[in-house]
Design goal:
Six copies of one chain form a homohexamer. Chain A has ten helices and 14 strands. In chain A, helix 8 packs antiparallel against helix 9 (239-250). In chain A, 44% of the residues lie in helices and 23% in strands. Chain A is an alpha/beta fold. The model of chain A has no long low-confidence stretch (mean pLDDT 93). In chain A, the strands form three sheets. The first copy, chain A, has an eight-stranded mixed beta sheet with strand order 5-8-2-1-11-13-14-12, with helices on both faces. In chain A, strands 6-7-10-9 form a four-stranded mixed beta sheet. In chain A, a hairpin with a 5-residue loop joins strand 9 (168-170) and strand 10. The first copy, chain A, has helices at 2-21, 32-36, 38-53, 65-74, 90-113, 151-158, 181-192, 222-231, 239-250, 266-272; strands spanning 25-30, 57-62, 81-82, 85-86, 119-123, 130-134, 142-148, 162-166, 168-170, 176-179, 196-201, 219-221, 255-260, 279-282. At the E-F interface, helix 1, helix 3 and helix 10 of E face helix 1, helix 3 and helix 10 of F.
């Protein structure tokens, strides 16, 4: 009966959150690392399916840096980075697209569909979902999000599917670009009118002092975050995520979250418990 | 983190059940006792709201014996029973109807609506939901279910409401009758194509040996149940419930359940855990 | 053939009114007296069914003062009035609710459903239809209409049902209150965008001179009515009705009507003849 | 108040009929004579509008013999009849079509639309409503109903319009034919699943003895009617109507009616009074 | 293979136009002459069917001057014109209506329906499509477009039909009027939010110099057109068309076109080739 | 004007085919070669867009043999074939999936979307589109079509998108398989109730005598085809296509076609001209 009591407690605690988010779109960004570890990936898939089952409309956005590097290496192509971006020529772009759309996306779709036929892979080129623009001539086919055309995602959500999005976009001339997945997650959350955007990273969240893990920030606001950026308390790897969060919240997304993707079922804990987990960012 | 782990475990365990029952109608019969105890009643309301929140379509059917007796007593009217049925003359019927529709139903609706504006009270006379026929001339206005016209319930479910049903029906001449709520729950489950009918009683379930609480039957089938009835192992109070269960399962309801309404959140435990609780009855 | 000619004349005279009101919601307030007399009540039910049959969307709101008093008396509870309001403690509220929802509402629903399964009883607590606020601490659970949430009524009308409304509302803390049915009728007419609100009273309508029945006012305007109130030409019992009418018309209801509920089929005569009956109030 | 009482009586008497026919298609055949007399025609239009207003779906089918003859005469073209059919060459067909579609149909549409923008003229060639076949080589372009394609009528009814049908059909080669309007009314009633087909003629109905007006048959059945045809009690002019009625009833139309179109508002009296008028024919 | 290459070239050239106009309403005005020549008329019908088949929503508006004159002559009625308008008494109006609605409209409907059951004739009196006002007392029943009520056309388009419109309207008193078809085409294009209005005339288009066929204007703007009118370069017969074009474009129609209806498939060439044909008029 | 005449001729010839196929699904199988040649591929994309523009619902299925071999070679992996199937171990499967889903599919989607945002890539694992079963243990992850779940394709078609399908399926245990694209095209045509399945190959069609190009079969039937297979007149490469065609036609697809994908716009010529191109196969 102890067991039963636990069930009751958890479900009753989850009830107001289930009610609050029913029908809402929530964008979840999976880092490439998340998908590399099969146990972790299976748990994340489970979290997404549970969100879907209780009436939330999850949209997964994924990266795939390690997997791209791996294939590049096998093909004997050197990878050069500049300001944290992979310099991407035509050949690299083709490899990047193959890995993101044809490997990482497929693996996430498969893991979700073990629970039922709901996941559908989408790339930014499908139905012109992501309009890209060149970030910098020296970076080659590295793009910024110029505009989001969420029609295909809205239709898939209306039909009760879970879209899994690879972040290859196209410019107006039809040229493909690789776009940073953190930026896409934020922009997509805005375009969908999502309630939340959730980043699964490899740290616990943001910290007041980068060096001191005990200074985890549980809840903060956009102005406070801007202060942290200024004071240099945000690690380099987190900068694009933080920028995307600020953009999303300024444009109507209710909250943004940084969670450690390695914590089992971190998304469920964040969504369905009073305590939450990681760092939550709101307007003010 | 122990807490978080429990959350994950419970929700992940619940996932396949949420998926399985999404969109299904489930009829839950509350006994009059359940509503007398305010703590119990509040918990039952919570269970119903949770079912609704995860996409199940719960329909509540309630009795109200103790409450009827109480008002009868206050009005100085003697209650006479015959074969377990309250002999019901015109005045008693009016009192019965006032108590069921105007008191018990109202209390359940109020408790559910604390969580959101979803519950709507319905009586068997609304839109001719329950067609009654006289059970026996000596019993007066005690009726049997002659037919169910589920149109109003189907419309309310389609509009995402939770119907709470009082079991006063009407015969073809427009005369009202009090109908046994156990029988209504089963007949309504059939008419709605419900997946389950769940009876909240004041015992743990059915027992192999009525006298021995250690003989609780966790799972049984209709043929087995008919054997138990024959051998006299079903208590008098359970007979109408058992008959209604058999009727429901013969007519397409997947399973029927007897739970102890006094166990906190018994419905949630039954629906969303692998172990379940109480007695489950299936076809074979 | 004389008979046939009469049929033709009546129907052809009714035609433009049927066309004009097709699809419109019309709120009809039944006083408690109307329901006490079974012949009168049956006729009113017929009028409502006829409105429904020609494509109007009638909504019935009812009171029940005499019936409440009767049960209070039988239970030996003294009724005390203050400024025309029944002082209502917890026990009185429970009795009031039982009588309104479990007796008066039921009788109206039954009478209408003799003609077909269209009436559905609704109380102000169903789906949070009526949000109440305390009128005055000394009055106990006597409420004012704080807000109307017409969703459940709109859904029932869209599904071609006739809602019959009891006027028990709830405050934000979930406490029930008894609300004046005249006020609810007006507020509901506003919330539904109704074309008319019709009050069935026990007098012919409003009079220029309260003492002189020959001074019946057939048609008047809100400003004129305000003049009458000021000059004291409105009887005490009519004051809440008049206030509700003025409120309704100021908020978009086209006309309000006072009819004698004892005149056979007064509603039909008002709606479907050139002459009309009783007093009609319009904006200007 | 006498007046008011009459209103009540008529409307209450009409109520069950309004309820019964709500949503039903009813085909009304106007003879050419009906439209020649402007007072009569205006009344018929009123009857159709009233049917429409109370939720019935009337479909008007019209002839136009006298009007065709008149234009033929003005153009100096001799009309020759054979077996009651006008021998129709190419020129006659063109004149017939102009008169039916461009004159008679227009007049009926105009009369109905005085009460609101609901009537829409349709000819058998619109959207291939009527597929015709040649009746007899000697008759020229006189057609029989080969098939009805009711799609355009069903769409107009679904959009709440009143179709007014001229009976020019087309054969599979695209050749136009004039089809007997009595036959079309019956065939259309079948194709629409109409509840009734009503023929407005210039006599009171069918008679047991053609010569004796006191022998009017108020109600009869298909077998009885076949007996009357055999015994020669049906006048020549009524034969196509009777055949169409029998066909319609054999194919699911509930009843067929012969009324005197000159009786003011005969259709209303037939539809909305207990007595009815003229002759009603049912299956058995 | 030469043939095949031509097919490919034409279809691929047509592709962007098909994409651009998909779902758009386009109003095509047929002059009376167009319908007099059966080969021409059949080709025009084909063009309309092709537009419909590729997802455009064509609406045909037609005149019928020569056909009206012909029947007037056969009936020995003299036709008098004033300022280019036929003076129209009651008898002439009836003849005009018979010819337009019962003959010309019918012929167009028949020609279109040879390709499938899509065309439906509509006159301005159906569902009060065209509200007319008297143009000038001396002209009799010659009307101007007072207002367009496009409900019936919108419903027919939504149901995938091709409306063919005769231009007889009604004033508020129910009196019919003959309205200039050029004016109706423009006004209808505005009311439907059409992309284009196309006039099929008996000349190649507008000319810079009326006397010099080599000065055909391929493309012009409203201001330029107003300059041409002022300088007298528009022939009398073209004046109403030009006025209707200017009105249409000022009210949101994207372009207006004047084509020679005698050029085989002029409409297709205009719509589906890069070169176009005739004169195109745009805003600026 | 010669040009204009050609336009008219082509479009008018195409008309009946556009009408016939409007709303029909047509499956078009692109071979891997088709996509290797950029000019060819761009033309095929144009053909697909044109089909979509005139209301047909094209579904593209593609292979990618040459592209798979190329990446395998670059990665230094030897490709071994058995009975025409590539022996596929885990690593080969991953490469196959990357190439099909992440490269070939992407290129087709991009080419189509140059004309508008309509193409959406789908793989057989999305929403469990293709259920696979192992073909033969020695072949590794080479699958047969066990079942098609066309829900995702039907939804995309209903939303007016053009699905582009890669043929990686999943077995019931979640293991991915590479399935022959010819077989998928036929099975998908059956599951969608498609009107046609069209194979773009590198030959003109089927031949009576494999060695003699002058013996091209323009039209044949399933029994005749079975005779050809028996007599050995079908080349090895065509065998799976022929089997898929026979399967498709036996299961309700109206016709199957073999065209030379190198003929410019072969699909348009087949669909929209009287002559057609290549080999057409029908039931009998």
């Amino acid at each position: 009966m102890t067991e039963a009591k636990a069930v009751a407690d958890v479900l009753v605690q989850a009830l107001p959150y289930i009610q609050r988010f029913r029908g809402d779109a929530i964008v979840v960004k999976f880092g490439g690392n998340a998908v590399v570890d099969p146990v972790l990936a299976a748990r994340l898939a489970e979290d997404v399916v549970l969100m879907h089952s209780v009436g939330i409309r999850p949209v997964v956005v994924h990266g795939g840096g390690p997997q791209i590097t791996e294939l590049m290496t096998r093909l004997g192509i050197a990878t050069e980075f500049k300001d944290g971006h992979r310099i991407t020529d035509g050949e690299s772009l083709e490899i990047t697209r193959m890995v993101l759309v044809g490997k990482v996306n497929r693996e996430i779709v498969s893991l979700i569909n073990r629970h039922g036929p709901v996941a559908v892979g989408v790339s930014g080129q499908d139905a012109d979902l992501l309009l890209a623009s060149e970030r910098h001539p020296e970076l080659g086919f590295v793009g910024d999000v110029e505009a989001v055309n969420p029609h295909i995602i809205n239709r898939l959500l209306a039909d009760d599917f879970v879209p899994v999005v690879s972040t290859i976009g196209t410019d107006t001339a039809g040229q493909a670009y690789n776009i940073n997945a953190d930026a896409v997650a934020g922009a997509l959350a805005v375009a969908l009118g999502a309630a939340k955007v959730v980043y699964l990273t490899d740290v616990e969240g943001l910290h007041e002092d980068l060096e001191d893990p005990t200074t985890l920030i549980r809840q903060t606001t956009v102005p406070e975050l801007e202060r942290l950026v200024e004071k240099g308390a945000i690690g380099t790897g987190m900068i694009p995520k933080v920028a995307a969060c600020i953009h999303a919240i300024h444009n109507g997304v209710h909250s943004a979250h940084m969670l450690n993707g390695a914590t089992p079922h971190a998304v469920l804990i964040e969504l369905f418990t009073d305590e939450g987990i990681g760092t939550m960012i709101t307007q003010s």
